[in-house]
């Protein structure tokens, strides 16, 4: 006979394992908070912007010039992350990072159909993130003249260090929220699994369900303050 489970049985299972269902999410939240606040290193982010513009004598622009500059952005993004630029930044700032390490800290992106390129740097020290972002923009502006024989890059905005910089990661509140949800789902799953594996008979109704026989009577147990029934 196919077994089904009712909402009442599900509720009873949850109530029987209520301590587990409460304890596991709380433990998960505490663990996530401890890791986020005390074990993970805060990462700060700083950005600067450069503008790729057309350079000519008569200062006339047309849609083709803008289209050309936008197409150049893909090439410039590769050049910014190349050793020709980043090695000079490392030397100028006397960084301990290698080229590969600095490259991993760097992110280049631009808005769609825009001539503005965003240079974003992530670092454990907020002041260093600002310094690296500004130095990359400055070195690139100077070096692109020799690399591509053009002078069409200008610095639109520089990175600045705020009074109280906030890390972009980790996000303790988000981590704890995720831990709570995962812990709650895990606790409910474990509760139903334990209930499924528990083959003991707890009351007369389960006797009727298992044996498909009516219960003739029960013997009360008066040894404890709360009445418990012995099934016969």
Automatic annotation (TrEMBL):
Residues 141-193 form the Tyrosine-protein kinase G-rich domain. The keyword Nucleotidyltransferase does not apply. GO terms for cellular component: plasma membrane. The chain crosses the membrane at residues 20-44, 173-194. Its main location: membrane. It comes from the Bacteria. InterPro entries: Bact_polysacc_biosynth/exp (IPR050445), GNVR (IPR032807), LPS_length_determ_N (IPR003856). It is a multi-pass membrane protein. Keywords: Cell membrane, Membrane, Transmembrane, Transmembrane helix. One of its GO terms (molecular function) is protein tyrosine kinase activity. Pfam families: GNVR, Wzz. Residues 3-93 form the Polysaccharide chain length determinant N-terminal domain. It is found in: Cell membrane. PANTHER family: FERRIC ENTEROBACTIN TRANSPORT PROTEIN FEPE (PTHR32309:SF13), TYROSINE-PROTEIN KINASE (PTHR32309). Belongs to the CpsC/CapA family. This is Capsular polysaccharide biosynthesis.
């Amino acid at each position: 006979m196919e077994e089904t489970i009712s909402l009442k049985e599900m509720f009873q299972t949850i109530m029987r394992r209520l301590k587990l269902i409460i304890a596991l999410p709380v433990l998960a939240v505490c663990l996530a908070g401890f890791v986020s606040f005390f074990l993970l290193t805060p990462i700060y982010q700083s950005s600067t912007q450069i503008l790729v513009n057309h350079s000519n004598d008569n200062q006339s622009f047309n849609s083709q010039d803008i289209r050309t500059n936008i197409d150049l952005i893909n090439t410039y993004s590769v050049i910014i992350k190349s050793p020709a630029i980043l090695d000079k930044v490392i030397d100028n700032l006397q960084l301990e990072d290698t080229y590969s390490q600095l490259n991993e800290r760097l992110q280049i992106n631009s808005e769609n159909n825009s001539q503005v390129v965003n240079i974003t740097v992530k670092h454990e020290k907020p002041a260093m993130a600002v310094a690296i972002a500004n130095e990359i923009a400055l070195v690139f502006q100077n070096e692109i003249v020799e690399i591509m024989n053009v002078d069409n890059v200008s610095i639109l905005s520089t990175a600045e260090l705020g009074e109280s910089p906030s890390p972009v990661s980790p996000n303790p509140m988000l981590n704890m929220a995720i831990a709570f949800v995962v812990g709650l789902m895990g606790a409910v799953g474990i509760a139903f699994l334990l209930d499924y594996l528990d083959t003991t008979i707890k009351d007369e109704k389960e006797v009727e369900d298992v044996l498909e026989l009516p219960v003739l009577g029960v013997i009360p147990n008066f040894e404890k303050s709360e009445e418990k029934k012995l099934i016969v």
